[in-house]
Predict the structure of Raffinose/stachyose/melibiose transport system permease protein.
Amino acid sequence: MRTLKRAGAEVIALGVATVVFLVPFSLMLLTAVKDQNQAADLDFSWPTEWQIVRNFLEVIQARDYVLLRAYVNSTVLTVTSVALIVVFAAMAAFVLQRRAGKVGKVAGFLVLSGLIIPPAIVPTIWLLQGLGLFKTLPGLILVEVAFGLSYAVLLFRAFIAAIPRELDEAAQIDGCTGLTLFFRVIFPLLRPVTITVILTSSVAIFNDFVNPLYFTPGDDNATVQVTLYNFQSQYNTQWNLLFMDIVLITIPPLLLFVFFNRKIVAGMTAGAIKG
């Protein structure tokens, strides 16, 4: 009886997931390869004329190849921000975990506050203007790193809690300094949670719309999500081009989750158990 109930629950969950995710995705793919007239119907009819290449080229060439520039900006933003998040979060988590005390408790509270307190847009803009980084890609990178550190620190700290302190002591006896101890002994052991942080942070930063819209206005430093906002106003009657743009923007994070889903779950589960 329990087996039947479990099987029934799995079938229901699979059906709900199909309706919620696969049906809209199928509509998006079908609309992206239709011509303008047939795409206006917004239905599940099979394309009478496949226009994959034509729609793809029109989207790429729109507004002086802004989508290609946006892909470059998003790639630079994501890679640089994630690299800084991983290094800084891992180092901060190691110090917070190994040096418990009043200062550590205050720092831990501040890290937790980063997940609770919403970001302040106007003060951040003032700060970036004072530093001369407003409307620049380096300024946006610093913003993404600041907003993503708290989540990464909590994951790293939970994982580091399971690493025996005897490793630290043995390395120090062998003459390791603080940085050598971290990068040669501790950091290689953080590979599972590091992969999780890289993948989840990459998808979050690549899909971020609010921060690039506020902190890097204009086409020069536009990211792919901002171009989607502009495409929506430009092609609001050409659904085939709008959905083709959505497909091109959706593919990279979707592939990351498809191929690395098990690693993401394994890293988060290991951190939770070891915490």
